[in-house]
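Re-run with default settings, no changes from the original entry. Doing this only to confirm the output is reproducible before filing.
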Amino acid sequence: MIGWSSSSNMAGLGTVGRTDLARSSRQDQDGSCEILRQRAVGRFTLIESLYRNTLELPPEAYSHAEITLVIEGTVSERYTDRAITCTPGAVRFVPAGEVHQVRFDHGSRCLHIRCDPSVLEQFQRLIPKSAAEITGMAITWLTHRLYAEFSRRDTASAIAIEGLILEVLAEISRSETQPDSRLVPEWLKRATEIVEARFLERLSLADIASQVGIHYVHLSRQFHKFNRCTVGELIRRRRIQHACHLLAQSQTPLAEIALICGFSDQSHLSFLFKRYMGISPSKFRSLAGSSPATEVAVDGTAPIH
């Protein structure tokens, strides 16, 4: 649980419409945030930021909608009614005007995509009205392709970036509506948090049920009802998504990725990866353009090759 600025103090705080320049200056003033790369593409601005020290921003609301891909580290957010913790590979969407507080942990690296308000007009009725972490294999695939294009500087990268961002927005707009959080039992919220935080561990229904004080049969039924998948399916999806992140952002061998992500061996990873993503892990790595942090230029120029 995030232990800063209680939600009861969030309401009514923050300023809507603060300029991007003011926010960037506040982030940079103590050296906590370093802009590694920045590109303006059409009606979008893409900024890759490295948070060398833990940085907590005061409650505020953006004048623009923003999509963030967490590349490394942990990003924690608090809203009036909930908290969200994003780990590597997570994709979050924050609409314009929603007051929230953000903390970037030491060593975090993110790709922020700021959207001009005019872009969202065509998605107005479909885009979430409140902040959300967007999940799913499609969004995983699209955002890693987007980061790969952002890392390139050829003549086609700009049009590719714009097209991919629009696809990401379309995927956000078609994402399934989440149940009203007020209707989800507290014990089920805790159970889901356990799975989300510990999907790389060897979990069982009985273990999770004992931690939340519910019979495992009841847990299984209610978990599927509210999360639209079984516990096992959610664990498998998160492991595949984590494998995607490692493939795209590191040169870790496939056999090692398989073990890290909880698969029995490389063939097990390859089988499930192709089932969920439609391509092999090797092909995904090739298309996603694996770009380790050590290759990122820090002077605003093109990445080092």
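The domain at 7-174 is CATH 2.60.120.10 (Jelly Rolls). The chain is about 40% helix and 20% strand.
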